[in-house]
# Entry
Amino acid sequence: MHTIYARINNLSALLSSCLMVLLGAVAVSSLLFTVNPTAEVVVASVQVVPGNARRYAKKHQEFAFVNFNVTADLTPLFNWNTKQLFMYVSAEYTNKQGVANEVVIWDRIVRRKEDAHIAIAGRNKYIFREMSTSFRNVPPANYTLKYNIMPYVGLLTYGEAGRTLEPVAFPEQHQLS
Amino acid sequence: MITWYYIITARPRGAERILIMNEYLQQLLDGKIDFEGQKLVEQIVKITLISSTIFSFLLGFALQSLQVTFGIFALSVIVLCLVVLPHWPVYNRHPVQWLPVKDKKTT
# Structure
């Protein structure tokens, strides 16, 4: 502590400890905000259409097209440590082979609290297809709205805002004329 | 300690002046303080850093703004550096009193 260098050393050593404690406290504080936002997910229609798999021209595959309505108020998820929200609609079903699938069909990034009021009539952004190439005899699927809270400091947290009241069945293949 | 007063009034010229300036700069860079000053600096650093951490967290939490938290913390660190790092005269008020030189012949 007798020279300026010793003082810089001493100050920065304690400063780094204090900064770590501060960051830790901020990260822990976001655990205090426990909110469960509710969302309404309604599937308006599901269509199953035949097509070609992209990479293999001769391989035939079925594609599902989902129209859905989502209304949600995710503003309570924004606290002082929320950087942005990632929200996504996923289809959950167990296929014929007994494998539980979760397919993300739509997503959105919400950066501001003002944009967290969601009222959307949307359709799937991403290709929705079955690994076994066909949706025939696949049990009905649940559609859920889930979110990730991305904090400035701390852990990414997952949550589910809402799901369809009843599973929605996949219809028979719809032939395009 | 060479003061600005000496540099201005004595008006040394040329190489002598450069030597004096060098010595002054060296003192500024070293920033040596006495033992009491060191004790005081250590206390100031401890109290300020810990209390500003707590204060900035609480105020930021109350206002729900991380910007406030880290703004206050950064500001208090800058002020603390200005207060503590240079060798202000406050930290040199208790110079070490050396014992007088003993006469070798009498012992």
Notes: Chain A has a mean pLDDT of 91. DSSP finds one helix and eight strands in chain A. The longest strand of chain A covers residues 39-52. Residues 61 and 132 of chain A are 8 Å apart (CA to CA).
